[in-house]
Write a structure and sequence with these properties.
- By secondary structure, the chain is an all-alpha fold.
- Helix content is 58%, strand content 0%.
- It has a domain of 66 residues: Arc Repressor Mutant, subunit A.
- The longest helix is centred in the first third of the chain and has 16 residues.
- The radius of gyration is 29 Å and the shape is flat.
Length: 113
């Protein structure tokens, strides 16, 4: 079936023949599969110091993705840790004061950025 379709979709007969040759050669080859048994990875737990650092950086205004990069963990880990520690999360987007200031700047001709 595949070989039949190749003739319809390739630009030239030599191309089709070359693909047929490659497929035939690949079907003849036997590649031994080697399975490697890796030792199980231990569950990495954050230390009390790392938890404190996440809290400190987040409260200082750093974004979760930046904290994750700095500490070598995933962003999900940072969010999860903040939730488990009961840290009040910042509101995503602008608060009312920021919105008013942005409107004033826009009315004065400033760019939206």
């Amino acid at each position: 079936m595949l070989l039949h379709l190749l003739g319809h979709y390739l630009n030239s007969r030599p191309e089709a023949e070359r693909v047929r040759t490659i497929i035939a050669h690949a079907q003849k080859e036997q590649v031994p599969r080697v399975s490697i048994q890796l030792p199980p990875r231990p569950q990495a737990r954050l230390t009390a110091g790392q938890n404190a650092k996440i809290t400190e950086l987040y409260k200082s205004g750093m974004r979760a993705i930046d904290i994750a990069r700095k500490l070598g963990v995933t962003e999900w880990t940072v969010h999860h840790r903040l939730n488990r520690l009961g840290i009040e999360r910042r509101i995503v987007g602008m608060n009312e004061t920021d919105k008013r200031q942005a409107m004033q700047m826009y009315e004065l001709g400033e760019s939206r950025r």
